[in-house]
């Protein structure tokens, strides 16, 4: 096992750089996880929309009720009642919505006529939908009381409607499975592994392969009584040991940072996916090691592939924010399928074969990448072995 | 027979690098393969070591056919290539130990042999140094230690002294003689004729992929007509005098350039006396006189018509 022992002696020389890469990874992952946690805790905050309320009708309990109801959702802004002022207010986004109550609106509404309030809103504003819904809600409720409680006065109807609208209904979701785990940390952590895995393996294995494939060293190895098969097997064993060692370290860090050791189907799927991705990373590192001729170039390639994959595969930038073209290109990288699998595992609520199918398909695609990279590396390696002199 | 090469032919496309080459190397020899750059020395060595496939011929080492998977033969061969082949990431000790361990299984034995090799190349003070910290000469010594640590029966050195300072070169050459004394058979390729003359017991001269002469250095020099080279510092020599000297008995060639008269004479006595008598009779003044025996370069020149280092 001389070559195997040599493998780790050579790796030792790259260890300081590898440790730096792992530290950078942990800093990024911890930082982004804390950020994600804060975002999750304050994910929904109700905000009030700025609107203007212009009333050409008389002051009635019905109109006051509408104003009060909208007041719980909107901020009223005073604007001048002129066409130009209204247009300016919308253009400069001083208000998002202007409600105008026409003359005799209350009377006609209570008489059962089909009347409408006039509205002006910022084009394509989502706020307008929200206010439309609120206004419709109020009018529907009032209409309901008018139609079914004819003995009630306008004041009583408005009071009842306001009481109804102020009551809230609590909704609780029930799942067929046990309480759904929050997988956001795990998705985040395992996605970031793309960076650590690719950079570290390309750096470590690349440097070792550069040493082993250096022409004079290869010639010296070939003239020894150690068979090429034994030499290659020991080298492969070294690569596998290094990769699995890195897997164990990164997975243990994940458990440590997560604060609990989860041995669930979900976490096992995350681990399985990470192990498969490490095999893909190994194949890329092996190929780079064969192609690249200097350590400096290997470092450069490690950064480009590590960072590049993270940027286009939804690690550093969420997939939702990436353009369609970028995502189409990303589909040709294994990191995309790895992160897609992580997200699918994270969303998994029911552990059924049907749900697993997509996940395993993604894993198979990653395997396909690994086999392709290994095949290319072997062809190049074979070609180079002919050029041993 | 330690090495036997018969009718070896190696082509690179249309270029014939080795042309029906025959070699026989006996046990205990320091065999020199001398030739200018591009003559086919390294190609021959690469074929012998099965690093290159050849087109025709046969190679036997230790009376067994040499093949890429002849591991029982390879375990008794040590190779020192022209370029230093060591791991920059390993110290001097680790490098020697690693290459030795590829030949020797027992760890204690590897340790012992590594220490012996370090002592042999006088690198005791540098065992913890990384190759990049070593000078060119020390690096060459490390390269040699990596090739000989396992005590091989046959050591092949392919131009091991290229770009080495004279002090380190002498140390390397002395080391090779010492290894031979310890029982190793040596094949030494170079284009430095002085090195071959200094250490080799038998020499083959190569040119254009062919062996053009083989023998001891004395035998090779006997093959040529030049017996002596006489050089004189002469002033005011005219063409007529040069012509008359050329016509003297036993004189092969005369050249007069920059006040230096170079005369090659055939084997035999009194050549110098005849020249000096002629110069005295013609009252041609001369100051310094040197005489040289023919070198391997003269042998190469006479056989090929060109200098060894052309």
Compose a concise summary of this entry.
Chain B: InterPro entries: AAA+_ATPase, ABC_transporter-like_ATP-bd, DrrA1/2-like_C, P-loop_NTPase. The complex is a heterodimer of chains A (389) and B (310). With 389 residues, chain A is mainly α.
Task: Give your account of this protein's structure.
- The complex is a heterodimer of chains A (389) and B (310).
- Helix content of chain A is 70%, strand content 5%.
- With 389 residues, chain A is mainly α.
- A 4-stranded mixed beta sheet of chain A has the order 2-1-3-4, with helices on one face.
- In chain A, helix 2 (61-71) packs antiparallel against helix 5, helix 2 (61-71) packs parallel to helix 6 and helix 10 runs parallel beside helix 14 (353-386).
- Chain B has helices at 41-48, 71-74, 92-101, 107-120, 136-148, 166-181, 193-199, 217-222, 239-246, 271-281, 296-304, and strands at residues 3-12, 15-25, 30-34, 56-61, 64-65, 77-80, 154-158, 185-190, 202-207, 210-215, 226-234, 251-257, 260-266, 286-292.
- Chain B has a 6-stranded mixed beta sheet with strand order 6-7-8-3-9-10, sandwiched between helices.
- The longest helix of chain B is centred in the middle third of the chain and has 16 residues, at 166-181.
């Amino acid at each position: 096992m001389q070559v195997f022992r040599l493998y780790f002696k050579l790796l030792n020389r790259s260890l300081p750089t590898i440790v730096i890469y792992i530290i950078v990874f942990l800093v990024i992952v911890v930082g982004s996880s804390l950020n994600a946690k804060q975002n999750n805790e304050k994910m929904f905050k109700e905000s009030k929309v700025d609107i203007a309320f212009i009333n050409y009708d008389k002051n009635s309990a019905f109109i006051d009720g509408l104003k009060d109801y909208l007041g719980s959702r909107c901020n009223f802004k005073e604007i001048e009642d002129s066409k130009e002022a209204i247009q300016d207010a919308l253009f400069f986004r001083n208000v998002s919505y202007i409600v105008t109550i026409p003359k005799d609106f209350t009377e006609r509404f209570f008489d059962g006529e089909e009347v409408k309030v006039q509205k002006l809103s910022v084009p394509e504003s989502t706020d307008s939908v929200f206010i439309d819904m609120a206004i419709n809600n109020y009018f529907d409720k009032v209409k309901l009381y008018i139609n079914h409680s004819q003995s009630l006065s306008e004041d009583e109807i408005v009071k009842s409607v306001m009481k109804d609208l102020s009551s809230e209904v609590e909704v609780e979701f029930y799942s067929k499975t046990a309480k759904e785990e929050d997988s956001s940390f795990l998705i985040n952590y395992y996605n970031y592994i793309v960076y650590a895995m690719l950079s570290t393996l390309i750096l470590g294995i690349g440097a070792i392969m550069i040493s082993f494939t250096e022409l004079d060293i290869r010639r010296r190895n070939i003239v020894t009584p150690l068979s090429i098969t034994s030499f290659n097997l020991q080298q492969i064993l070294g690569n596998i040991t290094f990769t699995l060692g890195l897997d164990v370290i990164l997975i243990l860090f994940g458990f440590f940072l997560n604060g609990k050791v989860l041995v669930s189907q979900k976490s096992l799927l995350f681990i399985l996916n990470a192990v498969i991705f490490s095999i893909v990373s190994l194949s890329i590192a092996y190929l780079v090691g064969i192609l690249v001729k200097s350590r400096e170039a290997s470092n450069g390639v490690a950064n480009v592939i590590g960072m590049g994959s993270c940027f286009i595969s939804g690690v550093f930038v969420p997939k939702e924010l990436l353009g369609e073209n970028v995502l189409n290109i990303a589909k040709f990288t294994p990191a995309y399928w790895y992160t897609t699998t992580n997200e699918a595992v994270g969303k998994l609520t029911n552990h059924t074969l049907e749900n697993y199918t997509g996940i395993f398909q993604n894993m198979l695609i990653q395997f396909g990448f690994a086999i392709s990279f290994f095949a290319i590396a072997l062809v190049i390696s074979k070609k180079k072995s002919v050029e041993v002199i | 027979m330690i090495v036997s090469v018969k009718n070896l032919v190696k082509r690179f496309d249309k270029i014939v690098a080795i042309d029906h080459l025959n070699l026989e190397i006996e046990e205990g020899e320091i065999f020199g393969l001398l030739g200018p750059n591009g003559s086919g020395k390294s190609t021959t060595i690469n074929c012998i070591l099965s690093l290159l496939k050849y087109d025709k011929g046969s190679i036997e080492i230790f009376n067994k056919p040499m093949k890429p998977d002849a591991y029982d033969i390879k375990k008794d061969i040590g190779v020192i290539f022209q370029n230093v082949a060591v791991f920059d990431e390993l110290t001097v000790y680790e490098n020697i130990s690693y290459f030795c361990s590829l030949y020797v299984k027992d760890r204690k034995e590897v340790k012992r042999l590594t220490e012996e090799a370090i002592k042999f190349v006088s690198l005791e003070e540098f065992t913890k140094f990384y190759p990049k910290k070593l000078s060119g000469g020390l690096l060459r010594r490390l390269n040699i230690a990596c090739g000989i640590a396992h005590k091989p029966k046959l050591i092949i050195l392919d131009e091991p002294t290229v770009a080495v300072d004279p002090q380190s070169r002498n140390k390397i050459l002395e080391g090779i003689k010492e290894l031979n004394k310890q029982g190793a058979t040596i094949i030494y390729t170079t284009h430095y004729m002085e090195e071959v003359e200094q250490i080799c017991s038998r020499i083959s001269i190569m040119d254009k992929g062919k062996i053009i002469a083989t023998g001891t250095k004395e035998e090779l020099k006997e093959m040529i007509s030049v017996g002596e080279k006489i050089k004189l510092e002469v002033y005011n020599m005219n063409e007529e005098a040069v012509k008359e000297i050329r016509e003297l008995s036993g004189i092969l060639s005369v050249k007069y350039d920059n006040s230096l008269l170079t005369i090659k004479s055939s084997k035999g006595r009194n050549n110098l006396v005849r020249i000096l008598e002629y110069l005295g009779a013609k009252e041609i003044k001369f100051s310094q006189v040197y005489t040289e025996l023919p070198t391997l370069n003269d042998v190469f020149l006479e056989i090929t018509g060109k200098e060894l280092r052309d």
